[in-house]
Design goal:
Shape of chain A: globular
Shape of chain B: globular
Distance between the termini of chain A: 66 Å
Strand content of chain B: 15-25%
Low-confidence stretches of chain A: 120-141
Number of domains of chain B: 1
Oligomer: heterodimer
Structural class of chain A: alpha+beta
Largest sheet of chain B: 8 strands, mixed
Low-confidence stretches of chain B: 197-202
CATH superfamily of chain B: Spore Coat Polysaccharide Biosynthesis Protein SpsA, Chain A
Largest interface: A-B, 42 and 60 residues
CATH architecture of chain B: Alpha-Beta Complex
Order of helices and strands of chain B: EHEHEHEEHEHEHHEH
Number of strands of chain A: 6
Radius of gyration of chain B: 17 Å
Strand content of chain A: 15-25%
Order of helices and strands of chain A: EEEEHHHEHEHH
Number of strands of chain B: 8
CATH class of chain B: Alpha Beta
Helix content of chain A: 25-40%
Number of domains of chain A: 1
Structural class of chain B: alpha/beta
Amino acid sequence: MANYQLNETKMFADITDGIAIVINSETGIYYGMNAFGTQVYENLAQGVSTEKIWEKIKTLGTEEDNFKAFIDAMLEKEILLSGTDSGAEVNIDEAIAKEDNYILELKEYNDAQELLLADPIHEVKEEEGWSPEKSSLNEDKEDVARREAKMEG
Amino acid sequence: MNDLISVIIPVKNGSRGKYLNQAIEGIQAQNMNVEIIVVDDCSTDNTVEIAQSYGCKVVKHDTPKGQVSGKNSGLKAACGKYILFHDHDDIMIEGALKKLYDEFEPDIMATEAKVQDWYSPDLSDEERARTLIKQEPYWGLFTGAILIKKEAFDKIGLFNEAVQTGEIIEWQSKMDSNGLKIKKIDFVSTMRRIHSTNFGKTHQNTEFKNYAAILRAKLRK
């Protein structure tokens, strides 16, 4: 039996509309899963033991090799790390598993690396405008004036 | 004279540190046939007055809508045959716009250069010490680095305003799926001003959630 958790240091994971996207924030490589894979991943990331998950999905017809390969790939890609048993119960929607023919899929993509790594941070904080948080800068008025004069120069 | 280029600067509160002034001056120093469109997202400072003082066309949002919507507002107001998006706090390098323009070929719909991170002079020494920036130039940002034929947007449509960052990923995906070619030219066109890491870190999860939404939509196609 093994337990896992998301490798939060490197990976950002988002599940919307039942589909997981995992982005490696260091490499810009990202991963997509099918809906059944997303469910199994979600259980794994929540610390549900592999034993509990397997007991459930083997009854549906998933092949053991597929399950093992799915987990091995996530470990190899460093999406998951070893974790502790959360005690949570397995939660799999059989209808979704059936739609995917009980097959777990994890695919790797590298077609947005440059864009993801460019880290465009020009987001806006409502009261601050699209500029840095002033609180993070030196507020000494003389110093600010000196530095702004330097910029004008 | 070159065909008109519309340079679109979405901005909110751009007066700080004379960032907006410097961005506009950098564009004007290109000595190209340009119209500069400043899209004001309900600034509470004198952003509009600054833009007007440089003779820029100003488009005002009635309510705050964000920088992606600002790009769309600028596109709707643009008269140019070419479009260049430019952040209000970055500075284009002299001669860069001509180089991007001259590299167009008949089957090319956009030319793309690199940007180079640069410490804003108003960052304190302490801030610089704890702010890591990319040492090498890199691809992947709109700001002052991608010149696009306006007709491309007739084919791919406007930006998706449901996301607030990462719109370039969607743009590139749409360009690819419509067979519109982007020519990369390996030079630095714009200095990307880095103010502080605080802001980026604070919003990192929001950004990644936006990216994930765009990537998910891309995979569905």
